[in-house]
Write a structure and sequence with these properties.
The protein is of the alpha+beta class. The protein has one domain: Peptide deformylase (Peptide Deformylase). Helix content is 23%, strand content 33%. It has 3 helices and 7 strands. A 5-stranded antiparallel β-sheet has the order 2-3-4-5-6, with helices on both faces. Strands 1-7 form a two-stranded parallel ribbon. A hairpin with a 5-residue loop joins strand 5 and strand 6. The radius of gyration is 16 Å and the shape is globular.
Length: 186
C-alpha cells in the first residue's frame, strides 16, 4: 500500500525516533509499504518518520544509481534501530532532495565514510562500513531518525534563500506526484 509522506513542518519529522523490537506489530507489512511508497514517489530512501511513525526504521533502494556506482547495483536494504558509530573521511558537497521537502535540492556536506550498527528485517545485527554514495543516502535517512532534515545542514544564507519555499511546503502549497500530509495549523 502506498502511504502518504509527511511534509516539512510536521512535528513527527522533528522527534527522535524510538527503537523497536521484533514484536513490533506487522513490521513486514510496514516495510513492504515503505518500499512501495518510496518507489512510487521516485525516492531512493524513506524513513518511518516520513510516513508518520516515530520509530527507528528506514529503507533504501539505491539500485537506480547502479550504472554510475557499481556498489549500488543491487543496494536494497532495511535498517532497524540503526546507530552511526563513526564518521570519517573527506566532507563531500553533493545535491540532495527529500520526499518530505519536495521540489528543493541543495548541496549538503557529508563525511564520505560511516560505520554503523543496525538490525535487518530478520533482526539480525550488523556492523558495517559504508562509503561514498551509499554512506550519503544512509546518513540522509538516518538523520530523519534523529529529527534532522537536510535543510538543517545548509548555511544560514542558503536557509534564508529557501525559507519561503519551506514555508510554502509546510502550508501545503506544493504539487507532487505523491500524496502528502501537511502540518495542521492551530
Amino acid at each position: 500500500m502506498i502511504l502518504p509522506v509527511y511534509a516539512y513542518g510536521s512535528p513527527v519529522l522533528r522527534k527522535i525516533a524510538s527503537d523497536i523490537d521484533a514484536d513490533f506489530p506487522e513490521l513486514d507489512i510496514l516495510i513492504s509499504n515503505m518500499f512501495e511508497t518510496m518507489r512510487s514517489s521516485e525516492g531512493v530512501g524513506l524513513a518511518a518518520p516520513q510516513i508518520g511513525k516515530s520509530i527507528r526504521v528506514f529503507v533504501v533502494d539505491a539500485s537506480v544509481y547502479g550504472e554510475e556506482y557499481e556498489d549500488l547495483k543491487d543496494f536494497r536494504k532495511v535498517f532497524i534501530n540503526a546507530r552511526i558509530i563513526e564518521e570519517w573521511g573527506d566532507e563531500e558537497l553533493l545535491s540532495e532532495g527529500c520526499l518530505s521537502v519536495p521540489k528543493i535540492h541543495e548541496d549538503v556536506l557529508r563525511k564520505s565514510s560511516i560505520r554503523m550498527k543496525y538490525l535487518d528485517e530478520q533482526f539480525v545485527e550488523h556492523e558495517k562500513v559504508y562509503e561514498g554514495m551509499a554512506a550519503r543516502i544512509i546518513q540522509h535517512e538516518y538523520d530523519h531518525l534523529e529529527g534532522i532534515m537536510f535543510p538543517d545542514k545548509l548555511s544560514p544564507l542558503k536557509k534564508r534563500l529557501i525559507k519561503g519555499k519551506l514555508r510554502d511546503i509546510s502550508n501545503g502549497k506544493v504539487n507532487t506526484s505523491y500524496k502528502m500530509i501537511f502540518p495542521t495549523k492551530k
